[in-house]
Amino acid sequence: MSDEEHHFESKADAGASKTYPQQAGTIRKNGHIVIKNRPCKVVEVSTSKTGKHGHAKCHFVGIDIFTGKKLEDIVPSSHNCDVPHVNRTDYQLIDISEDGFVSLLTESGGTKDDLKLPTDETLLSQVSLSIIWTTFACCVE
């Protein structure tokens, strides 16, 4: 072996996938699926019977978890679909600063202070309504 230094450029990520495969026939309502490269929550599933050409088909209707748009897909029930890894974390609102940053309480008791409210008026009104409802619900309990 020589004493030369070798440098390798990494062309890939750490190998963690954003999705995992799951057979289409096992995906149920309120689950998640990737439709047209978008992560969706499944709101409707229907399965057709096996026809003369073999496979039963699953018809999925999903709502994009980021945009709220309705998407549909039809997949043979024995084929694999991509299912996104979805983690939902709920925080309790502590404060909103004048510069638009929110202070949130984490489950471990710490605070998360690096989230800024959106500047888009439509999105901001939706977030504001959610914050008001959350605050009201906390006060009522």
TrEMBL record:
Residue numbers spanned by region Disordered: 1-23
Keyword check for Protein biosynthesis: yes
A GO BP annotation: positive regulation of translational elongation
PTM statement from Swiss-Prot or TrEMBL: eIF-5A seems to be the only eukaryotic protein to have a hypusine residue which is a post-translational modification of a lysine by the addition of a butylamino group.
The keyword Isomerase is annotated on this UniProt entry: no
Gene3D superfamilies xref list: 2.30.30.30, Nucleic acid-binding proteins
Positions with biased composition (Basic and acidic residues): 1-12
PROSITE patterns named among the record's database cross-references: IF5A_HYPUSINE (PS00302)
MF (Gene Ontology): ribosome binding; RNA binding; translation elongation factor activity; translation initiation factor activity
Residues annotated as domain Translation initiation factor 5A C-terminal: 85-141
Role this protein plays: Translation factor that promotes translation elongation and termination, particularly upon ribosome stalling at specific amino acid sequence contexts. Binds between the exit (E) and peptidyl (P) site of the ribosome and promotes rescue of stalled ribosome: specifically required for efficient translation of polyproline-containing peptides as well as other motifs that stall the ribosome. Acts as ribosome quality control (RQC) cofactor by joining the RQC complex to facilitate peptidyl transfer during CAT tailing step.
Entry similarity comment: Belongs to the eIF-5A family.
Protein's UniProt name: Eukaryotic translation initiation factor 5A
Organism, scientific name: Medicago truncatula
Gene: 11413270
